[in-house]
Design brief:
This protein is mainly alpha-helical. The protein has a domain of 65 residues. The chain has four helices and no strands.
Length: 128
């Protein structure tokens, strides 16, 4: 059960960060960042297997591989943006966090344009 490991690492890191903030607040952010990287590395293998499964499904179907690549990029941007926003908020920089969040949203929208264009073209060809 990987979730037990993940939750355990997260809770231990949380307790350590809370204790560290009392005595050495400058190191609490570093510990929080290290815990985030460790947790992220614990799930990266699962993400790779999901990508492989999606590629296999796309190859078997009539789904354009370029759209799968775009969807994977969008997912990656969303995950990394959320990670960066959390770190910025933990550091007390909510203004920077909101700018990172905005940038992530703009990038997601810009990447989705080809999919939306194709969708509109498909709909217009189906309509009489």
């Amino acid at each position: 059960m990987e979730i037990v490991k993940i939750v355990g690492v997260g809770l231990i890191a949380t307790v350590l960060v809370i204790l560290l903030k009392q005595y050495r607040p400058e190191f609490a952010l570093y510990l929080s960042l290290a815990a985030g990287v460790l947790l992220f590395s614990m799930v990266i293998g699962k993400m790779a297997s999901i990508v492989e499964l999606l590629q296999n499904l796309a190859n078997k179907s009539n789904f354009h591989s370029q759209f799968l690549l775009i969807l994977l990029k969008i997912t990656g941007i969303a995950i990394l943006t959320e990670f960066a926003v959390s770190i910025a908020k933990d550091a007390g920089e909510s203004a920077i966090a909101s700018k990172i969040d905005l940038a992530g949203k703009v990038l997601v929208i810009s990447l989705s344009v080809p999919i939306l264009t194709n969708l509109v073209e498909t709909i217009t060809t189906l309509l009489p």
